[in-house]
Amino acid sequence: MNTSWAEYREKLASCLCPPGDGVFTVNTAKERKLALRQQLFGTDDVQTLWLESLDALPQASQHAVILGISSDCGGGILRGANWGPLFLRSTLLEQQPAARTLDLGDVRVIPHLLHDKYLNPETISNCQKALYQDANSDYHVSPLSITEDICDGFYAHFEDKGIFGIGGDHSISYPLTKSYLKAKRARGIKTAIIHFDAHTDLLVERLGIDLCFGSWCTHILEFLPAPRNLVQFGIRSSGKPKQHWESTFGIKQHWAHEIREKGAEAIATEVIAQLKADGVEELYVSFDIDALDAAFASATGTPEENGMTPQEALTILSMLKAEFAITAADMMEIAPFTDSSLEGKSSSETTLKVGAEISAFLINAINHK
């Protein structure tokens, strides 16, 4: 990518918006948006200060940079993950202030769209007019397409930084990981994707759509050094056994019951040995909150019982961090307005608390690589 910093800075200002503004709405969660603005900027002149923060990006000492993608169009069970970036940011600031880092803002999301390849030229032109006041703009209009373009430019300009993406449904991890893997491959760095999830996300397509929350993993395999460098933890909701997924795709899985039976330390030791044998140098961690048991993470589109505990996840992450550089990550599928708890507990508060704890670990890992 041969664009100058000035051109890329203009793209950021056009395709993104201030943190928390990624959901197009008038009144819903208005107080939460105002509170986040006050915490981040302390003034009503948010747009100016946000643009100034973009100008400061080249000089920023932090390695971790937050990007929110408030889209749940790639989901399809229980919607609401589009509010994850706003609510998780607020929880991080309130409960994990030491993890504060530079924030690019949110991708500008038209909530009906997923990827530009699914749109006809007339629709793209209409959406460009709506987003950019230019029916002939060169910028993308769908969240997955915008995210990949922004991330491609980011890694071209900032080789020493990494994006912490906040979703949104898990389809968003497709452009986040694709850009990361392309950039690392171009530099000759061997990488692995560490994927926490209750589900394999290894469909080829879902109802005719190839890029969605249930298929994104399938479509990044070609960008990995080898398929086995996709390592999955916490799997338990699957119509097919572990052997099917590993033999079909060549990936590695550690199901939730295995982690309980063998212990998180033993599983992590096994994975570390595999990654070292493969010559892996850096890790991307993609964390779907439903990897955790529903008792800890019920404010999500597909909560599942018999899952991992937050401590098991953090144990595995801590052991991996001790051996490899975690250089980018994401937190997906937190849906704050959903409440599937059968015990009447505040599922949103609990889910956000553990989501913020794990997110803070990942942000700090990127910053202190």
Automatic annotation (TrEMBL):
Gene3D superfamilies: Ureohydrolase domain. Keywords: Hydrolase, Metal-binding. SUPFAM superfamilies: Arginase/deacetylase (SSF52768). Belongs to the arginase family. This is Arginase family protein. The lineage of its organism: Bacteria, Pseudomonadati, Pseudomonadota, Gammaproteobacteria, Alteromonadales.
